């Protein structure tokens, strides 16, 4: 009898497929360890820096952490993106809203009033931000979650990092930054050298067991109706390459097909039909990434890197540098490293924190796509194997 992976029953039309945070137990533990310091009334000893290529679930991890903090009670949590923080005054206003903390430092600060809202005017003094944060945290512990932090303005980021470091030394405070692999370069530009002592959490592709869980569990969390046929599940995991964004797209497509068929089993027939919708989204993803690589004038180098990764899960840094140098026809280390960093910025390759000098593909199947002569000429994706 064919082995099956059981999920709770499925009821067509019962709503959208919920997101699933699978395979991130180690990362969740690290964040909760930092959270525990605030529960004890102390500042976290380190900030957290969560980085990884796009589509690997950094935002989902931060949303989970936000829910955990809110469920525990007693700690404020603020979610922001750099677009909310264009300048120092906006940074202070969003982190320490004057409507709640107007009494803080009234002799040193002025307030602006515009369109029904108050805003701090720090007079360009970043040190005052530290005082504001420290006084706020004396009232109630605070966690700041900053997503897309690789786009943070350098001056604003420098003020935030310095204020976070000083505040956490005397008050219950934690800063969590999340972004693409370009985040570390952006932090370097802020000249806050202590940032590299932060807790670095790398978010990459899942292992196969977690990828299967990411597909099965969301169905189980809806209604008891569906079982996953083992070979069909294996096929989806293989085609997703354990890339969380592709797993999300697969899950949505399978959900739609199961709902239309009122299916009690996700089998090869359901997967084949859902696969057509998945292929459309995959091509869109590939085309977008290819355009990014082309705009950076990196297509020839990307093709050479794809050839080097063929059949390999990782390359040592020296190997990757040699491939890039050969493709550029240069012996210049700075030129090679700059090109490698540009490939990392678009998520084509990345080096997980704590992984030594080993570089990995961002999406292995994207490399396969760029190696396709058809894709190189027309932008069309190679026909997927089914």
Can you characterise this structure?
It is a single chain. This protein has about 375 residues and is α/β, with parallel strands linked by helices. The protein folds into three domains: about 5-20 and about 205-285; about 25-200, 3-Layer(aba) Sandwich (Rossmann fold); about 295-380, Arc Repressor Mutant, subunit A (Orthogonal Bundle), CATH 1.10.10. Helix content is about 50%, strand content about 15%. It contains 16 helices and 13 strands. A five-stranded parallel β-sheet has the order 3-6-7-2-8, sandwiched between helices. Strands 1-9-10 form a three-stranded mixed β-sheet. Helix 8 packs parallel to helix 10 and helix 12 (about 300-310) crosses helix 15 (about 365-370). The model is unreliable at about 1-10 and about 375-385 (pLDDT under 50).
Briefly characterize the structure:
The chain is an alpha/beta fold.
Largest sheet: 5 strands, parallel
What helical percentage do the residues reach?
40-55%
State the shape: globular
As for the number of domains, it is 3
Estimate the strand proportion: 5-15%
CATH superfamily of the largest domain: P-loop containing nucleotide triphosphate hydrolases
Q: Estimate the mean pLDDT confidence.
A: 87
Q: Ends: how far apart?
A: 23 Å
CATH topology grouping of the largest domain: Rossmann fold
The secondary-structure element order is EHEHEHHEEHEHEHEHEHHEHHEHHEEHH
- Unreliable stretches, pLDDT < 50, 5 or more residues? 1-10, 374-386
Would you tell me the structural class of the helices and strands? Answer: alpha/beta
Major β-sheet strand ordering: 3-6-7-2-8
Radius of gyration: 24 Å
Report the CATH C-level class of the largest domain: Alpha Beta
